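Quick entry, no commentary yet.
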Amino acid sequence: MRLSPTVSLALPTVLCLAALLAWGGMSGCRTQPQPTDSLAAARQAAVQRQRRIIFNNDGDDLLHLAGPATAETFLSVRTDHAAGTMVDSVFYFSRRPISPLYTGAVKNEPLAGRLQDLARQGTDDLRLVIEASRQQGIEVFWSMRMNDIHDNAKHPSEIAQWKKDHPHLLMDKPADKERFPPSDPRNIWTFVDYAHPEVRDLMVETFKQVLAGYDVDGVDLDFLRHPAFFPETRLFQPVTRPHLEMMTELVGRIRAEVLAASRRKGRPILMSVRVLPTLAQNTHFGFDVEQWARRGYLDLLVVGGGYDPFTMPARDMIDRGNQWGVPVYVCLSSSGFEHSIGSRRFYSTDADQWGRTRPDADEGLALKVWRAAAANAWLAGAKGIMTFNLFPRQPGSRATRMARRVWKEIGDPDALAFSDKLYVVENVESLQEGFMMGSVPIEGRLPVQVEPGAEVQRVLPVADDLAGAGDRLQSLELRLKLAGLRSNDSVTVRLNGERLRLTRRRPDWLIGPVPAQVMRRGSNVVKVELAAAAPSALTLDGLELEITYRR
């Protein structure tokens, strides 16, 4: 059985503490610049520190205040709620207008007024998050969304002035929003085009300002918000070799700024990137991650947009990260779970923000899917979990209760071993178009057509050792959603070669028990066959395995 993070990281933690003592620690004691060898040792210790859970905070804290912003009210929305959980790191995307690419949105109410409230108190959102997190013993990275296009859906007044002043540096024109439907990536015109050196220079200067003005423990380059940096991507085409080289040069320049800031401050400042889960995908979109790692540009890697939390092929980058000496963390998103669940009963903690509150939402089910996806990530070799779009609200709120429950559980693989879970093969049909631009492939996922006389198969990853669970296992149930299922259809379902007896319990669903000895830890092959006599095809829309343990 895998050791818990506390045990498995005991030696690195000792080394980390020794190195931290050598250079003054993370908690505010700043030293004179250290010799290169001491700084290198401190950097290695900082890289290896425990990060069971990384809380990715998109900076919307200020939008959810009930009144004027103060340090106390701002921190009470999200930051305070990480205390007493397994959150070891916060990656924060600040709304203070640091980057010219985002200054448009922060000029509008209520955000503008609340930022001014904090400014009158001599502070801002990023500074408050750094100070409060340090008091909790949590490290803080400033996270930059490298090409965020949420402004594409907003009023023209919320487009950053820099974009208005430099229309030739964008991928297209406002008219494209009318020319193309939302399902077409060309509808998104507010992407900046990284082929222009002015754009890359702007990014370097942005990081330089943050490193000079804020006492961060690291910076994060989030390349998945959103994953288009060159025009080819909007046409579902791979980028060119010169484009790969442009992005490598950019990452190298930012790394140079990070190292320079580390030398000035006499302590290691780390650098992370969030990219796609396979090397092939990253190359397609313009991220030559292997070169970045081999040139020493990276301290940490976070993989995945979180939209395929169960079947994400994260092991590809995890294994490569091990070869390169770069720890890899897996990103899981609340939004990804909502797309995945066939019953669509998932409770998303961003419901209030997007107006998706549902009376039939099931917090218990939400906790089961977080556990399952996290268990798969730990089994794949992840060093930790990043949570994305999982946000507390104010104290006592449903969203806060849900986020803290997740944060108290998913950072310990041993504690997850005998907890109830729901494993899923994702339905990613809605992610094939629009802003995702093919970054979550449909191959091996759902939906899939089951033709008469034909068989389809899907791999269901399951981290639990069910065959060895013995009496602790109470029930094991497989559920398949087959859209268009008729009363006289003959459907055969096999799991790892074993034919299962499933019955229809509600429209379009076949449900039944699974013998524990049939299950494998890791990949499980589910095959579905529709009899040749069926008048037409069915669509496999949902595939779920629910595990319940005895208490």
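second:
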Amino acid sequence: MRTNKVISSHRTFGNIALIVLFTIFSFNRCKNVDKISEAQVFRYNEDVSVNTLDPIYIKSQSEIWIGSQIYEGLVALDDKLQPIPRLSKYWEISPDGRVYKFVIRTDAYFTFVEPNQNGKLTPQLSRVTVNDVVYSLNRLMNPKNGSPGMWVMNNVDKAPRVLNDSTVEISLKNPAPAFLSLLATNYCWIVPEFTQKWQEGRLSQQPVGAGPFYLRRWETDVKLVMLKNPQYFVFDGKQRLPFLDAVNVTFVKNKQTAFMQFMAGQYDFFNGIDGSFKNKLLNQNGTIKSDYQQRINAVVTDFLNTEYIGFYLGDTLKGKPNPFRDKHLRKALQLSVNRPEILRFFRNGLGSEAVNEVYGFVPPSLLGEHHKEAKTINYPQKSEPLREFQNSEFFKNPSKFAKISLTTTADYLDIAVMLQNTWKKTLNLDVAIELQTGGMLRQLREKGDLGMFRGSWIADYPDAENYLGCFYSPYLVPFGPNYTRFVSKEFDQLYDEISTGIVRSDEDLQQRNANINNANQILSDEAPFILLYFDKSLRLMQKNIEGLSNDPINRLDLRRVRFKNSL
């Protein structure tokens, strides 16, 4: 979505490439091992490898999208990102907000394939029970399994337990307003207890869930096929979902090649935009150009992803005093950034900027009733960031401090160069740019070896506390995602109230939202980071697709997708 690879647009190359693509895919589409109606097969491409489909190890978007077709959890999120029952029929919460009781539905079935007596793979069914739920959640909590999502259950006081053949109980250490949203994450998807007997690692390659589809075939980095779960428990009126018969996923790594295949009609859906073709597809305000509007549909949605530059706030940096300890320097750098130019030049308008001049970390859609988008942002005069810079200790004695540099990956080099030029022009400050791979950047960031680093935070769950937790002092690395090492007693107190308060009334919710906005304001004022922009996602689809939408967490819900005039 954000790569900057330059690919030739020479007309001859494009024609040859399209001929090759049509040839290859015409051949592939002739193969239909499972005898499924071509009209009801939904096709899309993943340019990122899928390494596991075991819920407690799934991390990437590509894995989550496929896993969400196969699995279900106790709780799901509706189109407004509010918790709703899924494998549970309903839940009850104790008056102190610490005990949750879930009543499990009786019409949900795990679906999977196993060979019959003749060796032919056939679908098998197994009803979801309370034992499956308890097994799945305890498996996530077990430190021996080393799940990256174990933190989701950090507030669980006692192991989830079976109360009777229909009820599961979970007890918390403290009340947690966002606990139901946590249970809706992929880490809490439910797997059958019988997989406990399987060889280690088998579930990652042979997933078994109660979702709308089940895995039929998977050739790593080539193709993955999912078929309709004939006993999926969700209905649309009187019709059992999903409408589709199958989902085919390919793994073409080159995003421009995949886009060409999409435009040639080989895929029904395409996600994101690449720098190599964004100007051909998009106007500068983020809308689709008229040439493409006749051929495809597009959905642009707020995406819960904050793009930012983080400051390391430790005392020393590379053996010298850390210049970023000085708030004046951080504010000077923060106030110099021209976000509209970043969005216009590098994102073609796909993003939003500060809200009411608050350069906070929490995306606007999570700021509750206090969120009112400003029509215009009054950007500071050039003298204001310069005044902040001249008040900094670094301005007075630069040789005393560590060198100022910005570390980024190649995908964001263009934005880094723009910031470098801006700071030179506005502050007369020389900032070096250091390139690292994503893995090395994360490693150096956690060690505290980077003074300024590019980062992004995509919501694990749609609640402001997930963003504010990046600056909570008990979550200092390695105990959490506080990579900046920001510490504020006032902020920590607000975060404690946000994350552990009891919300039972509109007044409670209003107070929680007020605390969220106050904590976000502290981050804007103290500037442990520089907001670049709040992201938006772009979803493209063929004209004959119905029922495919999007939401701020960029889910891929295929349950109600169908082709026009197919039903």
